[in-house]
User: Fold Small ribosomal subunit protein uS15 from Subsaximicrobium wynnwilliamsii.
Amino acid sequence: MYLDQQEKENIFKKHGKDVKDTGSAEGQIALFTYRINHLTGHLKTNRKDYNTERSLVKLVGKRRSLLDYLTKKDVLRYRAIVKELGLRK
Assistant:
């Protein structure tokens, strides 16, 4: 998967403080969500791609740990990013 610089900047601009704010939890969660959605689409057509499946599981775990961190740090920021990305129903 190739994610070009412009798409990354758009993600960080929308979910972070600015384009250069690549370290914020919200920006990282948004980037992981984008990549998870892409890999999920790939796995729907390539069911036996086990390396991609493993990468997807690792990404979901990373996103989960960041969401847990954000829950402990600031619940309002957690609720905002979950609502913005549509992670919970």
Remarks:
- The two ends are 28 Å apart (CA to CA).
- The chain has a mean pLDDT of 93.
- The domain at 26-85 is CATH 1.10.287.10 (Helix Hairpins).
